[in-house]
Specification:
There is one protein chain. By secondary structure, the chain is an alpha/beta fold. The protein is 49% helix and 16% strand. The chain contains 24 helices and 14 strands. The strands form 3 sheets. A 6-stranded parallel beta sheet has the order 3-2-6-7-1-8, sandwiched between helices. The chain has a 6-stranded parallel beta sheet with strand order 9-14-13-10-12-11, with helices on both faces. Strands 4-5 form a two-stranded parallel ribbon. The longest helix has 24 residues. It starts with 16 loop residues before the first helix and ends with a helix.
Length: 550
């Protein structure tokens, strides 16, 4: 343990003054306004490092972080582990709102009675609710709030667990989520740090509260701080972002003198048809890869329906032997620890050169070991298993393409690891059928990819965050950054309704070095598109003008 005055940011990172003030705040609640690239995740990771290493969060108390997306919760957890080390990071809990609510429900489920009563093995579905048996994701936060309102004991147990709370992407908090936060923490002793950016408020359609940053500052008597630096984007990109900021949030704009420089690139590419668009962008992506840009640093963003809007592009990428990954169906799954365990197993067995996958696999298997001896026994058992199965694949090459064989091996591995170890990977897996659902879903997704060509290595490339070009909605891109970003279809027919300006701002601010905006005069209707699909398209000139001013 070190004294607060002796603490320095981990890994030699330099923080701007307001960020350092937020990190070292010992008693007051803080709400931090931070634009794209300002280092919100890094701020929270450094704050966790400060609190744990100085003893401001004293054992056995814990830190709670709440994010909106599964991968954002994972990113914060991983960043804290890198900054603090494994031993201290075990006292850092990172959840989504849904996961935090589920933990409350699982711990105090008997308090739900009448129409809200749930069986111990209840399940969660995206659409349908079955009384007592199944609830939807939208039920989780209201049910957790009901428990807290019924039971001061439940609320006080949470308060006694967490001395510090982090709230990420706070601008998108909905009314029911804010009521949950207030019920748990308002009036308690926990020190709350909220970070967000009103210019990136893109969940208005889902009930995100307007003015939530100020509401929180008032309700929690929080100090307001602003981060001004953008550590992500090159100057040319920052100037475009700043032009939007002047219209969206004038006080947050910065003087042009601070954005000098010629580094960075923005292009607006018009096309006659979406096929022309797909061919050109696939060619550009191939050139980037040929210039040693990692696939994980290339992203294609579209406002909605990537499986329709980017179908021709995906076909063109496939024709060039370029793996792509539709994040709409894969992102949340592969961010789950249970899914990562299975996928790392496949990577190690299918491709012996995957040392990073092996290290991650062994860390997941041994991280809940109570003693070094137990961790060593588990490690040896898993190593023997992996060596035996790799030898089997060398002897029987046909088995590498057999989905049934892979399912058998995955099942054997999970039995070796044991259910208690698997459940310990996440608090969400402690009760109910969530763990079993994830294990089955991950196995099925791998089999789906394996069925395409019978090549397990290629299947894992398509599933990988590291080896495939990522195609995702703007919503899914929140909190992420890439060297090269293509915003597909900057057209009136895509950008309309609530929050569309904020969404475009989020999209362009994901780029670190190069940004391409496309629009097409004609997008033929995919066979499975809805009746509202319009073939003739109009450029979103308001947005393109921000780029053309360069």
């Amino acid at each position: 343990m070190i004294q607060p005055e002796d603490w320095r940011p981990a890994d030699g990172i330099t923080l701007e003054p307001n960020a350092l003030q937020a990190v070292k705040q010992s008693a007051a609640n803080v709400v931090v306004g931070a634009g794209p690239g300002a280092g919100k995740t890094e701020l929270l990771a450094q704050r966790a490092d400060f609190l744990l290493k100085t003893g401001a969060c004293r054992y056995p108390h814990r830190i709670l972080a709440i994010s909106f997306k599964v991968d954002a919760a994972r990113n914060i957890r991983d960043r804290v582990r890198r900054r603090c080390g494994e031993q201290l990071a075990v006292r850092f809990d990172s959840f989504t709102f849904h996961a935090f609510a589920k933990r409350i429900i699982d711990n105090y489920r008997p308090l739900l009675t009448g129409k809200d009563a749930l069986d111990p093995d209840y399940t969660i579905d995206s659409k349908y609710r079955v009384p007592g048996k199944q609830i939807t994701f939208d039920c989780l936060v209201p049910l957790a709030l009901e428990i807290l309102r019924k039971s001061p004991h439940a609320r006080n147990a949470i308060r006694q667990t967490y001395t510090h709370v982090f709230l990420d992407e706070f601008q998108d908090t909905t009314k029911i989520q804010y009521l949950l936060l207030k019920e748990v923490f308002l009036g308690g002793d926990a020190v709350v740090t909220a970070v967000g950016d009103v210019k990136q408020r893109i969940m208005g359609w889902a009930g995100a509260l307007d003015g939530i940053m100020q509401t929180f500052a008032t309700d929690f008597t929080a100090q307001r701080l602003t981060l001004y630096q953008n550590y992500r984007s090159e100057p040319v990109l920052r100037r475009m972002q700043n032009r939007m900021v002047k219209d969206m949030d004038p006080p947050a704009a910065v003087p042009l003198a601070e954005l000098a420089g010629s580094a960075g690139s923005i292009e607006v590419l018009p096309f006659a048809t979406s096929l022309d668009e797909a061919v050109a962008i696939a060619g550009r992506i191939k050139a980037w890869l040929g210039a040693d840009i990692p696939p994980s640093e290339i992203a294609v963003l579209v406002r909605k329906q990537p499986h329709l809007a980017c179908r021709l592009l995906i076909d063109e990428l496939n024709a060039r032997g370029i793996a792509s990954r539709n994040e709409q169906s894969r992102q949340d799954l592969t961010a789950e620890p249970a899914a990562a365990l299975i996928l790392d197993l496949v990577r190690v067995l299918a491709d012996g050169r995957r040392s990073a996958a092996y290290e991650h696999l062994m860390r997941l298997v041994t991280q809940t070991s109570l003693t070094e001896e137990m961790a060593l026994r588990r490690s040896r058992a898993v190593t023997r298993f992996l060596e035996a199965k790799r030898e089997w694949f060398r002897e029987c090459t046909a088995a590498r393409s057999d989905p049934a064989e892979w399912r058998r091996i995955i099942s054997e591995f999970l039995e070796l690891v044991t259910r208690p170890v698997l459940r310990a990977l996440s608090p969400e897996y402690q009760r109910g059928k969530r763990l079993a659902q994830l294990l089955e879903q991950t196995t099925a997704v791998f089999q789906e990819e394996l069925d395409k060509d019978g090549d397990p290595v290629a299947a894992m490339v398509r599933l990988s965050e590291e080896d495939a070009v990522r195609i995702l909605t703007i919503h899914k891109s929140k909190g992420l950054e890439f060297e090269k970003v293509v915003v597909f279809g900057v057209e009136q027919e895509f950008f309309w309704g609530e929050d569309y300006r904020a969404e475009f701002f989020v999209a362009i601010s994901r780029a670190k070095n190069e940004l391409i905006l496309t629009h097409s005069q004609r997008r033929p209707r995919p066979t499975d598109a809805s009746k509202s699909w319009q073939e003739l398209r109009n450029p979103m000139q308001e947005f393109l003008d921000y780029a053309n001013e360069n």
